[in-house]
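FORM 7B: Structural annotation worksheet

SECTION A. Query
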Amino acid sequence: MADVIASPSVRAMARNKGIDIDRLAEGLGRQTIGPEDLGGGAAPASTAPAAPDAANYWDVDHTGYGPVTEEPMSRFAQAAARNLAAAQALIPAVTHHDRADVTAIEALRAELKPEAQARGVRLTALAFHVKALARALREFPKFNAALSTDGKTLYLREYVHIGIAVDTAHGLMVPVIRDADRKGLWRIAAEIADLAFRAQGRKIRQDEMGGASMTITNLGGIGGTAFTPIVNPPEVAILGITRTVTETVWDGETPRPVPMVPLDLSYDHRVINGADAARFLGFCGQLLGEPFRMMF
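SECTION B. Predicted structure
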């Protein structure tokens, strides 16, 4: 059977109940497992001391310190919070920081602006990041992988799908660009715009979510110099991007202003080591520095 599709919270629930989620999926004859499928199976006995109850620390009477206003979290936000908490708790993640010279990308975007207008497509820098990441995932297969729940098997994907994190009024959504390695920059740019627009209106279909090889989360339009994105399992890495800044680079004794984009790669240390991450992000940076290499 193919990889079982289940959220981090469902996988954590299965572990707590002592349920083999792969065997359960095989017995049910399907690939997707939800919390409703975990009714059977008892939690394994444990002699370990119970973890502190977070409610003892957080559920305090805040009105004792001053006036407060309550705002309930939406079901969408609650589900995202559970998944993020489970991912952060289960994955030994490390973040590698680097930067890339985007002089050539900005020059190429300016050169192609008339064609972009004629096509009705906005050729954003993000399209180049997607293309570079797709190339890198082909060059470094371990990043295009998923780790089994028991940590014994690495599933190497033969496809390259890139998730694009979109900030919406109702929470973060991650629609996916399928087969990004087989698409050109114009097609990728058009799909980014379309997915982002429909995400804002909650018009993304279920089949346009999930199954990403890796996700890009882009804060470039907002700001920041660096951050630590959370890996979204079953992916083993995630790429963060922040705002491009002009830095002074010395060419011999001559100072030269260079637009540099910060890159933040968080990765699952069970699968990827620091040297792998440095090489991977360095490869992405080289492609971004020479965008013509990505157009053919």
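SECTION C. Observations
The chain has two domains: 1-60, 92-294. The longest strand covers residues 254-268.

SECTION D. Sign-off
Analyst initials: ____
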